[in-house]
Amino acid sequence: MPVLNPLPLPLGGVDPLDKRAVRALLGETRERTLALVAPVSDQDMNRVHDPLMSPLVWDLGHIAAFEDLWLGVEAAGLPALRPDLLSVYDAAETPRAERGEIDYLRLDEAYGYLGAVRRRSLRVLDETELDPFIWDMVIRHEQQHNETMLQTLKLAQPGVFTPPARPLPARPPFHAAGRKAHIAAGPFELGALPSGFAYDNERPRQVVDVPAFDIDVTPVTNGAFREFVESGGYHRPQWWSDDGWRWRAAHAVERPLYWTPDGHERWFDTYEPIDPAAMVMHVSWYEADAYARSRGERLPTEAEWEKAAVYYPASDLTRRYPWGDEPPTADRANLDQLAFRPASPGAFPAGSSPHGCVAMIGDVWEWTSSSFNGYPGFAPYPYAEYSSIFFGDEYKVLRGGSWAADPVAVRGTFRNWDHPLRRQIFSGFRCARDAR
Ligand SMILES: [Fe+2]
Asked: 144 C-alpha to center of ligand 1: Å?
């Protein structure tokens, strides 16, 4: 998320956060950040683990700089605590590959900076009128960076990080993998309402007429994806887009990112046999697209995904989540960086959508066929560069959040985006087809 040129901040209609709730959320979010990296050695905090990712200590300094800019400078009109660091930690100005070189704070200084900024933010909270959007945005920014840091920790070599994983619910007795839900033709309201927290790219809400389609009830499983691998899916150019085939050939890609040739999958610092019932993860858009084509299907459009997830046909309403408008709970979705992996489809029946689709929120981010673009009537907020500099065919949209997403940070309208070749993200997919 870049931190440039803020726009004026006129928008109302955000969550009714009060100062006590803001203080509590700031505190909980910071505790999670610190707990996540606490087991990582100082040396591994400062090191570049993969050219794709920043050193973990850069993320910490960036979290502090973003908070200083938005809460100190923008919300309170104060000078930056460390003006010299704002460009060092500007994600737009500093490509990740170069972050091992630049003069960012080392670990002790980064912790000091985080603490100093936070102490001032809490004073600002007490002394200024609350603009909930800004505080909400800063909290979500930190939560989203925790997911980014988990991508780094997963790419790191075994020995760097052992996840303190909480067990998932027992495997469900039914197995809906491979079944389709039918979504009837008709209009529905896509996108976020004017009220409630949402990013600029989720608005404005609009009526979209969606032709009838069928969509997988569950994300694609490891077992199904392994059939694609074993049937030569990575060697049949007819199933791949031209760009996808070039990428596959150039990097000799043969299987999902953490799969090994002998049927194992790396989980941070251990290797396990691939679990055929769990959802496939760490596939690129190119791989997801090729798998879908091999079945005579395709990825869902964003509108199809959102309609299958949060549209209630009986009442003709779009809800915030598949289960309704209440926030996520532990029995509804695999979120919150607790399990450290996706579940088996159907493990959270209370989180089903009205169309019977499961795991649409949590578990794995789901690739859609859609490129990232503004909805008609898009207006940038709170700064021009948040979304719009990414609009275009270079980025594909992912939906639904992953096990690594904070429950506060996801909802049915949330749009994530990345390059179609990326797969260090916690990405899976489900397939769709025009209704027969
Ligand atoms: Fe950021």
From this structure: 8
DSSP string over 167-214:
PPPPPPS---TT-EEEE-SEEEEES--SSSS--GGG-S-EEEEE--EE
Query: Prior bond to 204 cis, omega within 30?
Result: yes
262-316 pLDDT, tens digit per residue, is: 999 999 989 999 999 999 999 999 999 999 999 999 999 999 999 999 999 999 9
* CA-closest candidate to residue 272, choices 222, 338, 228: 222
Q: CA 155 to CA 327: how far, in whole Å? A: 31
CA of 62 to the centre of ligand 1 (A): 7
| Ligand 1 centroid, distance to 145 Cα (angstroms) | 6
Centroid of ligand 1 to alpha carbon of 30 (angstroms): 15
Taking the C-alpha atoms of residue 110 and residue 377, their distance in angstroms, rounded to an integer, is 40
Is the link from the previous residue into 83 a cis peptide, with omega within 30 of 0?
no
Kindly give the distance from the C-alpha atom of residue 90 to the centroid of ligand 1, in angstroms, as a whole number. Answer: 8
Residue 45 Cα to ligand 1 midpoint, Å, equals 17
Q: Rounded to the nearest 5 degrees, what angle is found at the Cα of 146, between the Cα atoms of 144 and 152?
A: 115
Ligand 1 mean position to 221 CA, how many Å? 31
- Token look-up 């709730």 returns 21
How many Å lie between the centroid of ligand 1 and the Cα of residue 402? 18
Task: Using the mean position of ligand 1's atoms as its centre, give its distance from the Cα of residue 255 in Å.
Answer: 30
Handedness of CA 156, 157, 160, 162 (dihedral sign): positive
- Give percent of the chain with pLDDT exceeding 70: 92
Residue from 71, 49, 55, 194 nearest 122 by CA: 71
